[in-house]
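Q&A log
Question type: sequence-to-structure
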Amino acid sequence: MPDLRRDPIVGRWVIISTERIGRPHDFIHAQPARPMSTALCPFCPGQERLTPKEIMAYRPQPAEPNSPTWTVRVVPNKFPALQVEGDMGREGVGLYDRMNGIGAHEVIIESPGHTESLADLPAKKIEDVLWAYRDRIIDLKKDLRFRYILIFKNHGSAAGATLEHSHSQLIALPVVPTNVMEEIEGCRAHFEQKERCIYCDILRQELGSGARLVAENPEFVCLTPFAPRFPFEMWILPKRHAGYFEESQKTQFEFLAPILSECLRRMNKVLARPAYNFILHSSPLHERTGEFYHWHLEIIPKLTQVAGFEWGTGFYINPVSPEESATALRNATI
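Response status: OK
Response body:
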């Protein structure tokens, strides 16, 4: 029988309907991420002229900006969703509100290797990518026009990637997104009632149960959430309460990089290297939500499609239970 589950943070309902597809192994033949092309790539070393001038880069030795000796490189998006220049231009148009499309849109090129995915990188190189995220958030946080910074990754064309070379994106927004506000309000309500962080409560329960645990180390836990919207959805959370990703310290990145690598490799093993989305959820830049909000990463393999029922109701139908997903991921040999 289908199982209705309620997300304890935002109150969203999910239908776990395993009869619709079957078992985790049925997803092995889902469309994998498209193989890498050998065509001219603007993100490859030696092609720096094909991108806007770099904002930041890590290099083993000092060198000229935009030279091909980098290990991680950050450039403006050539086709930005929002633009840095200009004023906010807030105004009301009768009933409606509008503002200028002010923000920042950047690309974090994760490796000079064209065929290397994030899962293929050594943990130390993933750690460098995490440092790039942190450094860019800290820099953009100085611009008081920006209220929220979203970092995300689209891996594979089915997940929205338009270039195959492994990269992440950063968008700084002049508003806090609705999805983030729903999470924050759910966390605030739990904290006001119980004087505890709801994510910390989730961690205690999941570590005690183990049914939805995928991996853990001294600083981080990876789990499948109780009410996942999508099959094989995973969350990575710091064990110690922390509201702001950019306040993470070196020791935390040293543990975050290997668990992120492990979880991606487990997903690739179980699902034959699927397309996926990766989203960093952190506190808004200038609002003090850190007491009750807990930053985390979400990894969502692209295995199902959102269709009319989901758009019409806000419910999601997930054909694999999180317990089955966690067992398959946890038992994968990597």
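Response note: The radius of gyration is 20 Å.
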